[in-house]
């Protein structure tokens, strides 16, 4: 999610380090914060669809995906992890995307195998890459703070972090599919603090979405910072956590 160049949360803080108190654990959002797609969604959808004999323009699929995402927001599950790991929600998004882009729905006989290929693709290293600042930032604070991932994602995130060689930096991973709550719901933050065995005030969450990450974390009594790429990166944002030279 794009954000203004200046975020009020980045202004002065009463704590001399720039934070509101002692941080013991840092939680990172995943997509848009630690990792990014290697190509636009529309390009991937068009390429994999073509392998199934389905022709659709990448730019139309990109536009349609954004429309479908708005029409079918991340579901809340009342704190009960979904039995299908949110595969059903993703299937609805893919069905809606191709219907919008092509002007008619795909028959299930064509949609289902295409969906399976898309679902598997977005678990692989071919789909995701760390931002250039991700590994340097993690290596700078590793050992100084406990590190976790806190993301609106499904079980594939564990494999994605392994495939992008980021898993080793983190003590734990908390997902919306695992907790049955999606950010900004306070339930996912409560589960994260419980996993770390820390009070929320000792936890810092960093993410790129203002409502889900920054406001959601603050409402759950976490400390929070909003990452506004490309205006800032993780190294700049984490600067106050490092000791002065």
Strand content bin: 5-15%
The main sheet orders its strands as 5-4-1-6-7
Query: How many independent structural domains?
Result: 2
The biggest beta sheet reads: 5 strands, parallel
Order of helices and strands: EEHHHHEHEHEHHEHEH
The level of helicity is 40-55%
CATH level-1 class of the largest domain: Alpha Beta
- State the separation between the terminal residues, measured CA to CA: 34 Å
SSE-based structural type: alpha/beta
CATH topology-level fold name of the largest domain: Rossmann fold
Number of helices: 10
CATH architecture label name of the largest domain: 3-Layer(aba) Sandwich
Radius of gyration: 19 Å
Topology, element by element:
Layout: E1 25-28, E2 35-37, H1 41-50, H2 58-71, H3 87-102, H4 108-121, E3 128-130, H5 134-141, E4 146-151, H6 156-163, E5 172-175, H7 176-179, H8 186-196, E6 203-207, H9 210-219, E7 223-226, H10 234-238
Parallel strand pairs: 1-4, 1-6, 4-5, 6-7
Antiparallel strand pairs: 2-3
Helix pairs in contact: 1-2, 2-3, 3-4
Kindly summarize this structure in a few lines.
This protein has 245 residues and is of the alpha/beta class. It folds into two domains: 8-37 and 129-241, Rossmann fold; 41-121, Haloacid dehalogenase-like hydrolase (DNA polymerase, domain 1), CATH 1.10.150. 41% of the residues lie in helices and 12% in strands.
Give your account of this protein's structure.
The chain is α/β, with parallel strands linked by helices and 245 residues long. It has two domains: 8-37 and 129-241, 3-Layer(aba) Sandwich (Rossmann fold); 41-121, Haloacid dehalogenase-like hydrolase (DNA polymerase, domain 1, Orthogonal Bundle), CATH 1.10.150. It is 41% helix and 12% strand. The chain contains ten helices and seven strands. A five-stranded parallel sheet has the order 5-4-1-6-7. Strands 2-3 form a two-stranded antiparallel ribbon. Strand 4 (146-151), helix 6 (156-163) and strand 5 (172-175) form a beta-alpha-beta unit. The longest helix is centred in the middle third of the chain and has 16 residues, at 87-102.
């Amino acid at each position: 999610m794009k954000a203004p160049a200046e975020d009020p949360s980045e202004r002065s803080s009463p704590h001399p380090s720039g934070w509101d108190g002692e941080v013991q654990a840092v939680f990172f959002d995943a997509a848009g914060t630690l990792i990014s797609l290697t190509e636009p969604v529309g390009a991937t959808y068009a390429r994999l669809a073509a392998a199934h004999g389905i022709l659709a323009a990448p730019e139309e699929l990109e536009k349609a995906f954004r429309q479908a995402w708005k029409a079918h927001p991340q579901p809340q599950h009342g704190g009960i992890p979904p039995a299908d790991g949110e595969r059903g929600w993703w299937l609805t998004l893919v069905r809606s995307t191709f219907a919008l882009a092509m002007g008619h729905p795909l028959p299930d006989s064509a949609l289902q195998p295409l969906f399976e290929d898309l679902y598997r693709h977005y678990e692989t290293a071919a789909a995701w890459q760390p931002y250039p600042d991700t590994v340097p930032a993690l290596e700078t604070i590793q050992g100084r703070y406990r590190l976790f991932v806190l993301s609106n994602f499904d079980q594939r995130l564990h494999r994605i972090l392994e495939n992008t060689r980021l898993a080793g930096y983190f003590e734990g991973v908390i997902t919306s599919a695992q907790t049955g709550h999606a950010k900004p719901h306070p339930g996912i933050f409560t589960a994260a603090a419980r996993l770390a065995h820390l009070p929320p005030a000792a936890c810092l969450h960093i993410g790129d979405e203002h409502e889900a990450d920054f406001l959601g974390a603050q409402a759950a009594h976490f400390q929070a910072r909003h990452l506004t790429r490309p205006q800032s990166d993780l190294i700049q944002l984490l600067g106050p956590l490092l000791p002065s030279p």
